[in-house]
Amino acid sequence: MNSHPQLPLGLALRDGARFNSYFPGQNLETVHGLQQSATGSGEALVYVVGAAGMGKTHLLQAACHDAAQCGRTTGYLPLQDLLAFNATVFDDLEQLDLICIDDVSVMAGQDDWERGLFDLFNRVRQSGSTLLIAGEKRADRAGFRLPDLVSRLGWGVTYVLKPLDDEAVSAALVYRARARGLQLPEETAQYLLRRFPRDLPTLFALLDTLDTASLIEQRRLTIPFVKSVLDSRD
């Protein structure tokens, strides 16, 4: 199999979803644990819990990138996008070295999906593959109907992502900019935090817009320049 997933929707990993572009804040233990699992030297089953916008998708895709660099075969399944299919998307995944299942909470209460994941779990235990799962709630609080599935998901390590405080959100924005080769002055970061919701997906999307504008106009990310770019969108 290829080192990246081949799924019905032609899903692909974001190239920028790397561990070195994720600001860990108080989640260093989680990041280190996932890095080890990605390379096959850590836990074989990891469950990552966190609210929307906390970077679960980024971390799972980063694990796939790291695994592929080590020559491991990988599969990334965002269940939110796959529910239009059926649970056969789990078939044969145990042949991969690393399987990452995102948005697992969305399949809670759907018997065929729960049974499909349960069966995959048992096959993975036999094959020795690594399974990383992410959801907004812990397995025992996600609404799964199949008790054996809840039990299996509790066998591994569970990491609960800790939210960033305001200072850490600012630091994360500057960190992401630096990873893209951008210089984001602290005063500009504070301007963005005052003007926009302090959730990272929104702020990172703004950074994408500013990055493009900065390249086109060859301008630094000063507050006047940033204001002019953002005002032009309104």
Task: Provide a compact summary of the structure.
The chain is an alpha/beta fold and 234 residues long. It has helices at residues 28-39, 56-69, 79-82, 111-127, 147-153, 166-179, 186-195, 200-217, 223-231, and strands at residues 45-49, 74-78, 98-102, 130-135, 157-160.
What are its keywords?
234 residues; alpha/beta; Rossmann fold; five-stranded parallel beta sheet; 11% strand; disordered N terminus
Describe this structure in words.
With 234 residues, the chain is α/β, with parallel strands linked by helices. The chain folds into 2 domains: 19-160, P-loop containing nucleotide triphosphate hydrolases (Rossmann fold); 166-231. 45% of the residues lie in helices and 11% in strands. The protein is built from 9 helices and 5 strands, in the order αβαβαβαβαβαααα. It has helices at 28-39, 56-69, 79-82, 111-127, 147-153, 166-179, 186-195, 200-217, 223-231, and strands spanning 45-49, 74-78, 98-102, 130-135, 157-160. It has a 5-stranded parallel β-sheet with strand order 2-3-4-1-5. Strand 3, helix 4 and strand 4 form a beta-alpha-beta unit. Helix 1 (28-39) runs parallel beside helix 2, helix 6 crosses helix 7 (186-195) and helix 6 (166-179) packs parallel to helix 8 (200-217). The longest helix is centred in the C-terminal third of the chain and has 18 residues, at 200-217. It is elongated.
